[in-house]
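Curious: why this fold?
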Amino acid sequence: MARQSSRPAKSDDLATRRARRVATEDARTPAPWLVLGLVIEQPSHGYELCQRYRERFGSLLPMSVQRVYAALDRLRDDGMIEETALKPVDATRRRQLMRRSYRATHAGVKAYHSWVAERMSDDSQRPQLLGLIASTGVLGIDAVLDVVERYDRECVEELRTIGTDSPRAEGGRASLEELTEELIRDQRRRELAVRHEWAMHARRALEAHRRRAPAEAKERKAKS
């Protein structure tokens, strides 16, 4: 009797991973990147990562257990994380660590930092997400400053593109259509000006923190 091939099982497993990946891509949220950040912060297995995601990001960007696993599959298929064997800290955790565990690759770390720097400025939830991402400890002060500086440059560049008020609109000679278009541009100018002001404030606060950090670390070490 011919031995049955194991190929169908592999095919089914591949189909499952593809289905999960489609579900993740349809979400159109930064959630998979946040999962990657958690893996970078601490390599672990899927169940523990689901718990950490819910505690850290669940109130802002809810994500089901299935979608967290889908994100892990996608990140693995894209070479951003890889399976690894973690050593148990104690006997009680040995069974948990027998589950499939992941750690970030060098490419994954690099891609994550690029995403934070280049994509965060386009997200409407940028301030909240930036705070939560910074709380993981994965990003250092320089990386957070880079996010703020890129964001500020984009605001300034768009302000230049929009330009100043139209003389026709200011003089009351514009048509209703022209006036409406100018009012829309004016709204955008005001919004960008506020964002630019916030970015300058954030930069000053972060740079002050960087100057204080060595002294504070030295003081904590002295007390310990």
Remarks:
- Strands lie at 44-45, 81-84, 101-104.
- The radius of gyration is 24 Å.
- The CA atoms of residues 38 and 110 lie 14 Å apart.
